[in-house]
Amino acid sequence: EADIYQTPRYLVIGTGKKITLECSQTMGHDKMYWYQQDPGMELHLIHYSYGVNSTEKGDLSSESTVSRIRTEHFPLTLESARPSHTSQYLCASSGAGGGRFDPSGNTIYFGEGSWLTVV
Amino acid sequence: GNSVTQMEGPVTLSEEAFLTINCTYTATGYPSLFWYVQYPGEGLQLLLKATKADDKGSNKGFEATYRKETTSFHLEKGSVQVSDSAVYFCALRGGAGGTSYGKLTFGQGTILTVHP
Q: Which helix or strand (DSSP H or E) is residue B67 part of?
């Protein structure tokens, strides 16, 4: 079992509100990721981090921002939510290898997802 | 860059039928290959993986073999169950010697529905 947690699981908010999606992992993984799932179910990488104080934009442009102040925590923030931000957001992490969860460091583990609806 | 192509769905089968979901990839270097499954209302779960050519990943009756010569990682199961109904994603993680090292690239997903 992978230990990566996302909150909230489901959220409905009004346009213009600020929202932060939380993601935490207890595996000591250095790499963390945020994916956005579109209505066609495709997954798009929007942010990733290779370690503390390291964040990069992913393949899909996103108005969200991320921070990585602690190894275990990788929150995603929308300063002003819009209906176009309605989606499922999936957080993931992977390690450098050598740990009990994934000795090879190859596997990326996902949280259960945060379903965001902006009305 | 890397890319993953899955067979288009949705796929509808009767219980105990044989399942194949095709997956081909384009990558440089030595990628690792994965199948993830997403049950309704849930996040992604790792189903199986293979980290080098000719490796076979298997779990819960599903199998996939890493074929470097055909750049494929097709998912198979001999006898599907209603509980296998889900969305299946083929994925590639860039490996050493290639572009996009460490990043995961997904296929577009295939919806599988199994009827009793």
A: none
